[in-house]
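Lecture notes, unit on protein representations.

Consider one protein chain, 116 amino acids long.
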Amino acid sequence: MCEVDRDEFERLVVAELDELPDDMVEGLENVVFVVEDRPEDGTLDLLGLYDGVSLTERGQYGFGEMPDRIILYREPLLAVSEDEEHLRDEIHVTLVHEIAHFYGIDDDRLHELGWD
């Protein structure tokens, strides 16, 4: 298990966001990225979550909508990571996975693309 405090973890998330391709992040509108320690159920099973309505399912969407959230769970990500390099990889994959859900790509398609 990797040991990283919350501030450093958030810095790693920002650094990995900066590494993502521009065409992946340019379309993210009304989305916030959030770091939480654990999912509401307290388990370490979930690394991240997209909380919102994907682009493919949006009808009227516009002014005044609450932002969608992409949540990264710090403790589960630390638990699966052997060191900081592995943690960076896990954060990167989790960001791609949750951003894909924003674009309407489901888990089956992500699996086909090798992002599981």
